[in-house]
Amino acid sequence: MACNRALIEQVQLMLKENSQFLAIGGDHAIGFGSVAGHLQHTPNLSLVWIDAHADINLHSTSQSGNIHGMPVSFLLEQLRTTWQHAGLQEIAPNCLPKDQLVYIGLRDIDPYEAFILNKVGIRYYAMDTIDRVGVPKIIEMTLDALDPQNKIHVSFDIDALDSNVAPSTGTAVRGGLTLREGISIVEALRDTKRVQGVDLVEINPKLGSDRDVRTTVESGLEILKSMFGYRRSGKWSNIDTGILGSD
């Protein structure tokens, strides 16, 4: 929690001086500090959590006890009372309402997490839904669900991508988003011009072969490039447009 306390403070400092910030993990436990700090600066916030896992376990429901499986439960208004003895109110007084959270890419959901998601009424698009309706429809439904006046925080776990393109991660799950699908999602979010905070987490260079690590890092870089302005269709700003002569 000490790391997240420091991150909460740093995010607020970054947003005082910059229009956007990027937090790179590490595991997805940093999602708590990153989003909590963002909420302190920008209380009217929407969160898009792109991940193979829901990361919404409570301490009482987690089979592993790993904090990186719990950060969303720390953040959510409807679950805050379950953590009333954890000191969260002191370091992160602002919470996220359930209707401003959307998950994309889930495919490894613990039974208790499935219960929480459905009992609380959290919007999530698991891979079976994505396969059925397609990424363009998922993007449309995600943007329709979020308050159009809110800034957006995108928390991207590299294991949202299929393990073929992101093998060097701690809890890889087959059957995930293709790299093209991941890029399409972040492009659509970027084009709202409302993305203020971004996390990229769970790239672990200690796992897998050199080729696995290179593949995973390259996938992460492609996601970040697209999030922060790179366009696959090309663009021609800041160039000498007179090179072909006058019309």
Automatic annotation (TrEMBL):
<dbReference type="InterPro" id="IPR014033">
    <property type="entry name" value="Arginase"/>
</dbReference>
<feature type="binding site">
    <location>
        <position position="157"/>
    </location>
    <ligand>
        <name>Mn(2+)</name>
    </ligand>
</feature>
<dbReference type="GO" id="GO:0000050">
    <property type="term" value="P:urea cycle"/>
</dbReference>
<keyword id="KW-0378">Hydrolase</keyword>
<protein>
    <recommendedName>
        <fullName>Arginase</fullName>
        <ecNumber>3.5.3.1</ecNumber>
    </recommendedName>
</protein>
<feature type="binding site">
    <location>
        <position position="28"/>
    </location>
    <ligand>
        <name>Mn(2+)</name>
    </ligand>
</feature>
<feature type="binding site">
    <location>
        <position position="159"/>
    </location>
    <ligand>
        <name>Mn(2+)</name>
    </ligand>
</feature>
<dbReference type="InterPro" id="IPR023696">
    <property type="entry name" value="Ureohydrolase_dom_sf"/>
</dbReference>
<feature type="binding site">
    <location>
        <position position="51"/>
    </location>
    <ligand>
        <name>Mn(2+)</name>
    </ligand>
</feature>
<dbReference type="GO" id="GO:0030145">
    <property type="term" value="F:manganese ion binding"/>
</dbReference>
<keyword id="KW-0835">Urea cycle</keyword>
<comment type="pathway">
    <text>Nitrogen metabolism; urea cycle; L-ornithine and urea from L-arginine: step 1/1.</text>
</comment>
<feature type="binding site">
    <location>
        <position position="53"/>
    </location>
    <ligand>
        <name>Mn(2+)</name>
    </ligand>
</feature>
<dbReference type="InterPro" id="IPR006035">
    <property type="entry name" value="Ureohydrolase"/>
</dbReference>
<dbReference type="Pfam" id="PF00491">
    <property type="entry name" value="Arginase"/>
</dbReference>
<comment type="similarity">
    <text>Belongs to the arginase family.</text>
</comment>
<keyword id="KW-0479">Metal-binding</keyword>
<dbReference type="GO" id="GO:0005829">
    <property type="term" value="C:cytosol"/>
</dbReference>
<dbReference type="GO" id="GO:0006525">
    <property type="term" value="P:arginine metabolic process"/>
</dbReference>
<dbReference type="GO" id="GO:0005634">
    <property type="term" value="C:nucleus"/>
</dbReference>
<keyword id="KW-0056">Arginine metabolism</keyword>
<feature type="binding site">
    <location>
        <position position="55"/>
    </location>
    <ligand>
        <name>Mn(2+)</name>
    </ligand>
</feature>
<keyword id="KW-0464">Manganese</keyword>
<dbReference type="GO" id="GO:0004053">
    <property type="term" value="F:arginase activity"/>
</dbReference>
